[in-house]
Amino acid sequence: MSDQPSASDVQKRPPNNNLLFAGIILIILIIAAAFVLLNSTDKSQTAIEVEQPIAERPMMELKPENDPVVNAPSVNPEKPADLTVPTPRPVEPEPQVKPLPTLDESDPVVVAKLDEYLTDAAMSLVINDDVIRRGVVFIDNLAKGKIAQKHTPVERPEESFSVIEGEILTVDPNSYERYTPYVKIFTSMSAAQIVRLYDEYKPLINDAYAEIGYQGDVFNQTLEEAIDLLLDTPEPKGDMPLLRDSVTYQYAYSEWERLPAAQKQLLRMGPENMKKIKAVLRNVKKELDNQ
């Protein structure tokens, strides 16, 4: 028997360098496995140390007499303030409008109404007979530039017209003062009050206007025409010379003398009184236009 290996044995055994290589690979795998295992073990331990499980606490059992819910006093919920239904206020009845009297019976009512606005001194100048009829006829004539002396709604001034005689005749300024009480009647009421009175008694005014031949609601236009005519009255910048004509006087300048009687009457009241009257007339016209 020979000590030399057979040929088959030689072929089955790997060479020595291959064994060495396999050993190196095996050592690397063992180190890698150990590294992985060691790291995973450290992480699991760290997680256990950080995330400690919460210990369950034993529940306390309350006896019924110690239960705050059982022994809590009963509370009745109140209604919120915003849900409270307010008590309805009693509805006040609308004031009843008294029916107007007839035209023939209207004087006491109209005079009483005027007395609410005017002073006793002013009321003493008002003619309280056929008040509405007088006013309607007077304004109708004013719209035509005329003065209805027999239908004037106020008493005539007691003082007489006076002049200053010199080189030329001129109106005495003191003569204007006799019209001041009448201007106070006109200016003591606001334009709104005047128009309110006009609207209140407009049915009776239309009745009085129908008596003198006008039909329908046409007095409003007549009133505006009378206002426009008075507002168109020229305003002198100085003295107005006069001419004596028998027992009367005329304006020396023909342009003044040719003015309608209604405008000349306004001139005789003086420049200050005329300005006050025109101011009220403008406001009255504005109130009428806004209706």
Question: Care to describe what's here?
Answer:
With 291 residues, the protein is mainly alpha-helical. The chain contains 13 helices and 4 strands. A hairpin with a 2-residue loop joins strand 3 (242-245) and strand 4 (248-251). Helix 6 (131-143) packs across helix 9 and helix 7 (180-187) packs parallel to helix 13 (271-289). The protein is elongated, with a radius of gyration of 58 Å. Mean pLDDT is 78; it is low at 1-26 and 28-64.
Question: Which features would summarize this protein structure in a list?
Answer:
single chain, 291 residues, two-stranded antiparallel ribbon, 4% strand
Describe the structure concisely:
The chain is 50% helix and 4% strand. The chain has 291 residues and is mainly alpha-helical.
